[in-house]
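cron nightly-structures :: item 1 of 1
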Amino acid sequence: MEEGKSTIRAVERALDILLCFTSGTDLAMSEIAEQVGLHKSTVHRMLATLEDKGFVMRDRATERYKLGMRVWELSAHLSATDDPAVIWLPEMERLRDQLGETVSLYVRDGQERIRIQAVQSNQAVRRVAPVGVRLPLYVGASSKVLVAFAEPQEREAILSADTWPEGVDPAAYRRQLDEIVSVGYATSMEEREAGAAAVAAPIFDRSGRLAAVLSISGPANRLTTERLREVAPVVMEAARLMGTMLRSG
């Protein structure tokens, strides 16, 4: 039994090491060790195994690591027809061309939101939205939609979590969430980032469950409060259409 536990722990550590590359593409062993909280000797052994299997590559000149070809081989076998981020990309591009702003998709992971897809604005002044970035769940239009339209039990768990900021007025925030559910979208004006604004709407699957959030973001001097209200119906309609593209469960 102890051997089984040890094996599972080794797998967890290896996966933790690979997940370090979600925040950087080129990492030193010391950086990886710090992120996963393991001794350098342990990380060195695990990196050697991952390198041997082709999941990481080591630059022998700099002794820094990158993801290996095995990762890309695995990703190549993802079914594009089953990946919403791929299915929705043409509609996101159409929306970008229509509104002229950056379009993003978000999902919730615990107390954070993750950008899983983005189409950058073609305008000279624009918001750059890197895919894979994690952002706080308590601020921003997309975050508010993810909390507002979560299942009731999940919503309560999110709002009562120890990590929820003390500075947020729970009663006022709940009223804001109720308003978002009522109107069907959320806006933010310089909530997370100075000079940035956004409007977001929920994407529901065929069973009515929240699948993701569609967001339009850009400079606040273009996306004024009036402009956000103006484009909200367009974003909501795009989100509705994207929901119909999902397979029924």
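cron nightly-structures :: done
The chain has two domains: 2-74, 80-244.
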